[in-house]
Write a structure and sequence with these properties.
- With about 400 residues, the chain is of the alpha+beta class.
- The protein has two domains: about 5-220, PPM-type phosphatase domain (Phosphatase 2c, domain 1), CATH 3.60.40; about 225-390, no CATH class.
- About 35% of the residues lie in helices and about 30% in strands.
- It is built from ten helices and 18 strands.
- The chain has helices at about 45-65, 70-80, 175-185, 190-205, 240-250, 260-270, 300-315, 320-325, 330-340, 365-380, and strands at about 5-15, 25-30, 35-40, 90-100, 105-110, 115-120, 120-125, 130-135, 135-145, 150-155, 215-220, 225-230, 250-255, 275, 285-290, 295, 340-345, 385-390.
- The strands form four sheets. A six-stranded antiparallel beta sheet has the order 2-3-4-5-9-8. The protein has a five-stranded antiparallel beta sheet with strand order 1-11-10-6-7. The chain has a five-stranded parallel beta sheet with strand order 16-13-12-17-18, sandwiched between helices.
- Strand 4 (about 90-100) and strand 5 (about 105-110) form a beta hairpin.
- Helix 7 packs across helix 9 (about 330-340).
- The two termini are about 35 Å apart.
- The model has no long low-confidence stretch (mean pLDDT about 90).
Length: about 400
């Protein structure tokens, strides 16, 4: 066993004029050390393509996660989904990246653009063999994983971006590989990398995509723990116990809330130092305590983090804001979204008297809901979450 884990991000745009995307990505984790990622592209666009690509990805990911063989998966797909009577081709193509115990990647590709791999800062022409299953020619690769390996899977709407447009006749796979290599050194999350790629495709289409386009980016990285303390415990006698557990954990430590910062400073025997320059209009300023990586206000800051997290899982339109700004919410976002793989929340249940003012929109339930909703978002990002209440 190793300490590697995948960072997975994907983004799609619909064919111009369509309400539904004809591509679909499904991610299944049968256990803590294995992941099945399926990107499927339904023929054409619209409702039919959306249904068939969703069926394809769901069937394959579920069967592989349950331990069935690739042959059984493909035979099931061949028997389940029809073939276009006009074109004589399958209604849905697919790319599978099956990470086994975070040590081996099995990449299976059927009629989608070949997965781009980047290793050691270079585009890597990884090995593979062509096999025939149920009359389908499938390209299969088995790769021993290394830290920082990067894989880019895509539907054919990506390399075809720009066809017939003024911007470009056709953006080829090789062009996309060079484009992704250039941004791979910037330290972006895979979600942001997939967003940048799809935004570029959209631009090449003149913002009127002629096909659905989907990119799924997978980076192999080391596990990185992170710890966030939010609110004092309901029983003051538990201050020392909560903080002892918090600081005993490996990784960086974030403290959120004014009262929480005070008890943390007392525990460490260090003063709270204000940093008035690191602030934004809608986010309170940052403080500093020696021995703590980041000290922020509580509810307002975490509310902003939740807003960014929900956008990150959707359109990811605000990634340029939190990726570059230095306010409290942006710094927490970079630590939780980009750096962390395993996040421990230590949540105090004490009721803040200041929040009991009926004229304020903050109360105890809102605080608990923030933790619950943020935890859900982070789990959807692939983070391992543990919440401890005091």
């Amino acid at each position: 066993m190793n300490d590697l884990c995948p960072d997975i991000g994907f983004k799609s745009i619909n064919c111009y004029g369509e309400q539904l995307c004809g591509d679909h990505v499904d991610v299944v984790e049968p256990d803590d050390h294995s992941t099945v990622i399926v990107l499927s592209d339904g023929l054409g666009s619209g409702v039919k393509a959306s249904i068939l690509s969703t069926l394809t990805s769901k069937i394959i990911s579920t069967m592989l996660a349950e331990g069935l063989s690739l042959e059984e998966c493909v035979e099931t797909i061949a028997a389940t989904l029809p073939v276009c009577s006009v074109r004589g081709i399958a209604y849905s193509t697919f790319t599978i990246i099956h990470l086994k115990r975070n040590q081996i990647a099995e990449i299976i590709q059927y009629d989608n653009p070949r997965v781009i791999a980047i290793r050691d800062g270079e585009i890597w022409d990884y090995p593979g063999t062509e096999i025939n299953i149920a009359g389908k020619k499938i390209f299969r690769s088995v790769i021993k994983l290394k830290e920082n390996d990067l894989f880019i899977a895509m539907s054919d709407g990506c390399p075809h971006a720009g066809t017939g447009q003024d911007y470009n006749y056709s953006w080829k796979r090789e062009d996309i590989a060079d484009f992704m290599l250039a941004i791979s050194f910037a330290g972006y999350t895979t979600k942001t990398m997939s967003t940048i790629l799809i935004d570029e495709c959209n631009k090449l289409y003149g913002y009127k995509p002629g096909d659905d386009a989907t990119a799924c980016v997978v980076r192999i990285r080391k596990r990185e723990p992170m710890n966030l303390l939010f609110g004092p415990p309901s029983n003051r006698n538990d201050d020392k116990r909560m903080l002892s557990l918090f600081f005993s954990k490996e990784g960086k430590h974030i403290v959120c809330g004014g009262t929480t910062a005070s008890i943390t400073a007392n525990f460490l025997g260090k003063p709270i130092i204000a940093s008035p320059n690191l602030k934004a209009r809608d986010v309170p300023p940052i403080d500093k305590i020696e021995g703590v990586d980041l000290v922020t206000e509580g509810v307002i800051t975490i509310s902003k983090v939740l807003e960014y997290a929900q956008d990150y899982l959707g359109e990811n339109k605000h990634y340029e804001h939190w990726n570059f700004k230095h306010d409290a919410a942006s710094l927490i976002c970079r630590m939780l979204f980009e750096e962390a793989t395993d996040i421990n929340f230590y949540v105090g249940r004490a009721v803040n008297p200041a929040h009991q003012n009926p004229d304020l929109p903050i109360n105890f339930n809102i605080k608990m809901n923030l933790v619950e909703e943020l935890s859900k978002c982070l789990k959807k990002m692939g983070k391992k979450i543990k919440v401890s209440y005091f």
